[in-house]
Design a protein that fits this description.
Blueprint (H helix, E strand, L loop, with lengths): L4 E4 L4 E5 L10 H6 L5 E5 L16 H14 L6 E6 L1 H12 L4 E7 L8 H17 L3 H11 L2 H6 L1 H12 L3 H12 L15 E6 L7 H10 L3 E6 L6 H4 L1 H15 L2
Length: 259
């Protein structure tokens, strides 16, 4: 399935995949700064933003295949750099595991390799049913937005918080429900980490309420060419909460790959 996307900037290609329940607009700060040096392709995944909202569960592998189809449509067959945040990281891990020749660098931001616990999967299913019944995204927004930010960011960065709330409130309820069920059934990718042969940046928020720093450190240590960057004054949305430090880490990693 072809995806809606932004295509910004010159230079080597970097594909950025958004998190849940957001869309490609979450990367605006990266499109401005990183996109001044690199060509950024930022798609809206199936069911999000301006992309179509078909029926059925959106498995992580299905979302990944949509990205490949879109890259093929753009004739981007040479290896590119891939980055994903949170759910976007799940998609990125699927892509690198299943299409390794398509990528030359990987950025895993505020994400994890493990599958959902039974309790977490049931929580997603409960939220999916709630969204279906109400026909509104409010349940997802109310449940998730406070957790996405570092406590200090949530308390002091009102403009950013409201921007993200507004973005999430635009989400299609069917797309949210289908995506929640796909995340709940995703496979554990921990065993794939040791097989990642390309340079990998693991970017973590120092105050991430969803993924502990210890988990990010462990993931980075399992990847042969992995390196960890901890972003201060940031939670689960580090590239939004601390744009300057996140962009510096991203640009430093991209420069280390060469052209």
């Amino acid at each position: 399935m072809l995806l809606a996307f932004d295509d910004v900037g010159p230079g080597p290609v970097v594909v950025l995949i958004h998190g849940f329940p957001l869309n490609r607009k979450m990367w605006d700060a990266q499109l401005t700064e990183v996109g001044s040096l690199y060509r950024i392709i930022a798609p809206d995944l199936r069911g999000a933003g301006e992309t179509a909202v078909p029926d059925g569960v959106y498995t992580i592998d299905l979302l990944a295949d949509d990205v490949i189809e879109t890259l093929d449509a753009l004739n981007l067959t040479d290896p590119v750099v891939l980055g994903g945040l949170s759910m976007g990281g799940y998609v990125a891990l699927s892509l690198v595991a299943r299409y390794p020749s398509r990528f030359r660098g990987l950025m895993l931001m505020n994400t994890r390799a493990v599958a959902d616990s039974p309790a977490a999967a049931e929580g997603r299913e409960s939220l999916a049913r709630q969204v279906e019944q109400s026909g509104k995204p409010d349940g997802v927004v109310d449940a998730m937005i406070p957790k996405l930010f570092a406590p200090a960011s949530y308390a002091t960065h009102a403009t950013i918080v409201e921007q993200i709330k507004a973005q999430a409130m635009q989400a299609n309820p069917l797309g949210l429900a289908n995506t929640l069920r796909g995340m709940a059934t995703r496979p554990d990718r921990t065993g794939d980490l040791a097989r990642i042969s390309i340079p990998t940046l693991v970017l973590a928020g120092a105050d991430d309420q969803i993924i502990p720093i210890a988990e990010s450190k462990s993931m980075a240590s399992m990847i042969p060419h992995g390196r960890l960057e901890i972003i201060p004054d940031a939670g689960h949305l580090a590239p939004l909460e601390n744009k300057s430090a996140s962009n510096a880490a991203i640009l430093g990693f991209l420069r280390s790959l060469g052209d």
